[in-house]
Design brief:
This protein has 229 residues and is of the alpha+beta class. It is built from five helices and seven strands. Helix content is 55%, strand content 19%. Strands 2-4-5-7-6 form a five-stranded mixed beta sheet, with helices on one face.
């Protein structure tokens, strides 16, 4: 009888232990489920916020455009260009590849935005690609830094910027951007970190398929970029 009761006690103990362990497991699973649900709601809220902010910005730019368009055509064009550039950046920030035509539109809007009263007799030449290559996919915002840099250092009077973009056989893309500078060497040291970051990005996007050459002189600065797509 004593042995029987002792066996029952052991069985009861292990049953209680199993029930306790199951309860702890269920508690942990429910806690993890609640945490995941909370994280999901947080991500959804952040996503909504990220959409509301650009929407608010574009609405205000649109309102500003309609207020300015009757007063100043150049100012209204710059507002339109700014809106187009920002929209492009917001849309492409998570994209891995975009049609080449979008990058051409981006460059055109950037030129429209940058060409202002800071410059006198600034000549800009942009030779794009043919329609047969417009749908070729490339990494987004690949040329923005080079074009912006050209406007930053080009001569304020009688300056020139020449941008050439072409696709050759076997889907090899060539981008060249040249500008004249004041009678002093281009301050390459000040752009060293920027160029280093650009090279790192190119190596990540197109490993062993890109060549970036920087040419500087007393009166000019030129970028030659070749990418095997």
């Amino acid at each position: 009888m004593f042995v029987f009761l002792r066996n029952i006690s052991f069985v009861a103990f292990f049953v209680i232990l199993k029930l306790y362990d199951d309860a702890i497991t269920r508690y942990r699973l429910e806690k993890e489920k609640l945490l995941l649900l909370h994280e999901k709601r947080r991500i959804e809220l952040d996503n909504l916020k990220s959409k509301i902010a650009p929407h608010f910005l574009f609405n205000n730019l649109n309102n500003l455009y309609h207020k300015v368009v009757a007063l100043s055509e150049p100012a209204s064009e710059q507002i339109q260009a700014t809106s187009a550039l920002l929209r492009e950046i917001f849309e492409e920030v998570d994209a891995t590849l975009v049609p080449l035509k979008k990058e051409i539109d981006f460059i055109n809007n950037l030129i429209l935005l940058e060409k202002d009263e800071r410059f006198t007799n600034l000549e800009i030449t942009f030779s794009g690609i043919g329609k047969e290559h417009e749908e070729i996919l490339i990494a987004p915002l690949l040329f923005e830094a080079f074009v912006s840099n050209a406007f930053k250092y080009v001569k304020r009077e009688n300056g020139y910027i020449v941008i050439d973009l072409k696709v050759e056989e076997q889907n090899t893309l060539h981008f060249n951007c040249e500008n004249n500078t004041e009678a002093r060497p281009m301050p390459v040291v000040s752009t060293k970190n920027g160029l280093l970051n650009i090279r790192k990005r190119l190596d990540l996007l197109y490993p062993n398929k890109n060549r970036l050459e920087i040419h500087t002189g007393e009166h000019f600065f030129r970028v030659d970029l070749t990418v095997k797509l």
